[in-house]
Amino acid sequence: MRRTKDDALLTREAILDAAEARFYDHGVASTTLSHIATAAGLTRGAIYWHFPNKLELFRAMHERAKLPQEAFFSSATPAARRSLEELYTNSIEAFRHLERDERARKVLTILLLRCEYVGEMQDAMMRRTDADNAMHRTVAAIFAAVQHRGELKPEWQPEIAATAYVCAVGGVISEWLRSERGFDLVTVGGGVVRSVIIGFACPGVPIACLEEKSLAAEAARGCTGGPAGGR
């Protein structure tokens, strides 16, 4: 019995691996269960034994991956301690996670670039939408805490600032995936995040990530020992 259960789990994972690869390479709409069965070296009957349809298979493939907005934008931090520095740190960790985790990268590519959410796939939007909404609420709460401390520029309201921030981060990730990792995500994404934070923060607000960047820039210019090339 144990052997049969283990074999079933291995078969399920093989199906999910084949689905992930096929969706990534060919798109969701053009992939059938027959394609996935062939890629996994199984029959369609084996697919149906584990998954009743393509939507449920898609959901299971999706659930295996840790999405950055679920992993690094939680609401666990007490409101009083939420800060722009936390927002920066979470964003950098999300970028690093995508660079390191091939499955998360492939699944997010499928979700953003390889799937049309029409017909039977409309319901597949639910987890992605829930994760995006949860991330937006968390980011808005950070901006609300920053505003309460008088650190957010008066022209920004927390909800609007959160929308702008999510658009900036999401745009960098989408372009990185579309270009097939055509640039260093942490370097470029970190630069975008810092620039956006500068636009939100009141002048004089101490933010470590900005101060570190400034010191690094000064060191690169030779500011600690006089102007570059001034010897």
Describe the structure.
The structure is a single chain. The chain is mostly helical and 231 residues long. The chain has eleven helices and no strands. Helix 1 packs across helix 4. The radius of gyration is 22 Å and the shape is elongated. The protein starts with a helix and ends in a 10-residue tail after the last helix. The relative contact order is 0.10.
How would you sum up this structure in a few lines?
This protein is mainly alpha-helical and 231 residues long. Helices cover 68% and strands 0% of the residues.
Keywords:
mainly alpha, 11 helices, disordered C terminus
Low-confidence stretches: 214-221, 223-231
Helical residue percent band: 55-70%
Number of strands: 0
**Tally of helical runs:** 11
Structural class from helices and strands?
A: mainly alpha
Terminal Cα span: 78 Å
Most strands sheet: none
β-strand percent reads: under 5%
Element order: H for helix, E for strand: HHHHHHHHHHH
Average predicted local confidence, pLDDT: 85
Which helices and strands, and how do they pair?
Elements (H helix, E strand, L loop, with lengths): L1 H25 L6 H8 L3 H7 L3 H10 L4 H4 L12 H17 L1 H12 L11 H24 L9 H21 L6 H16 L7 H14 L10
Helix pairs in contact: 1-2, 1-4, 1-7, 6-10, 8-9, 9-10
